[in-house]
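Hi, here's the filled form for the chain we discussed.

Project: internal
Contact: R.S.
Residues: 474
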Amino acid sequence: MIRFNKSLTMLVLALSVFLQTIAQQSNSTQGSSTTNPYKWNMFGLNRVHIQDFGLSDQYAETGDASGLNGFLGKANTTVGFSFYNNLSEKLAFSADFGVGNGYISRNNPSSADIQKGWSSSIRGDLYYHFSDSRLPLQPFLFTALQGNLRKGNAFFSAPIGVGARYMVMNNGGMILAQIGYGLGLTQRMRNNISYSWGVYLDLNKKKKDASPTGDNLTDTDKDGIIDTQDKCPNEFGLISNNGCPINDKDNDGVSDEKDKCPNEFGPVDNNGCPIIDRDKDGVGDNFDKCPELPGPVSNDGCPLSDRDKDGIDDNNDKCPDIAGSPMNMGCPVEENKVAKKQEDQGPIWIRDGNHFRSITGDSLKYVIYFDFDNANLVQASFNLLSEVNQYLKTNSNWESSMEGHTDLEGDPEYNMALSVKRAKTAKQYLMSYGIKANKISTSGYGKTRPVVATFQEDLGWMNRRVEVLLVRKK
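And the returned structure, exactly as it came back:
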């Protein structure tokens, strides 16, 4: 009886300290939230307990216990099913029901104790985990109460010990193992070493939604920053500002402290100020050399000078004061005094069928066109080049030059290379008909000589061309 009272006193003291620590942990967890995000349930079909009575031989046996030798000779193995409930971040509970087989040693063994037999058991464990429940490996302390019923006799013990659980299957399963010292709570039952292990499966279908990991990934204000890292979890903010909104009165994405125009919407690259474009030509006044006159970007925002309003800028218009045809370099087709005054600047062309002839009669010009950003000949070009081929073969004292051009879109260097490629394509076609290479010269002018100074697609095609010039040798 003295030994029983001493064992019971040790158990009560251990349980009181253990439960006090658990209560403090549980209160701190429940005080932070009305619902417990750590709670989940698991079920095991193969929980195993082994009570080893062979390590308590310090109590003398008074009966014939010659059969209680070795580990298996002094052990009772119980296999059953178990319910496991995670109560809080560090507190859990399990309840086991099982059937055992083996020996149950008593302090005063009788001859019946050396007989191996079956027993039923019920057990409850209380766990306290040392680490955060989100970690896969969880070491813990435990205390338990176990009862065995054998041949009408009840045996009770209270194991206390340590163990660990390991989460598997993305927290959908668990492996648990523990070892403890079991205090005999009845005069008839010896103290023992208790070994236990089990495998559990999750019973909570919505565990992922209620898990601590999912809770910690909550983003209340939907700004892409989880609440645990968001300094303003209830206000939509920027990552660069730790999840807090910036002071931006004009809502242009530039904070007021960095916005030189905090009350006016403006792009970031203009320090939050609006781009002023008085002539509405797409070139801001800061970069527009003619801020009050609309003009293309390629001309720094200034309009192309076109005094006669024929669509050909004055720099490329051979008759800048009289409206003319793009095909005639801005001059009218008719022979007139103005055209004759411009004769010293180059030949004046008059349309003659599929080509143009100079008024002097010593040169002809064919114009072939190309698709956008392309140097391949189109069907109409084949017909014109065939006519050029026939003319050169018939008139041996004539030579040809290919002058390539592009529209106004794109990089100048790229366009220059494209114009040369177009000229060489036309030359290769004539050479395939037997025209000698020394009778055909090529040159490229890129976008420096447009016939229409405009970016409009309905006119820009006139610039994508090769001018095939046939000249009589002097």
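Let me know if anything looks off before we file it.
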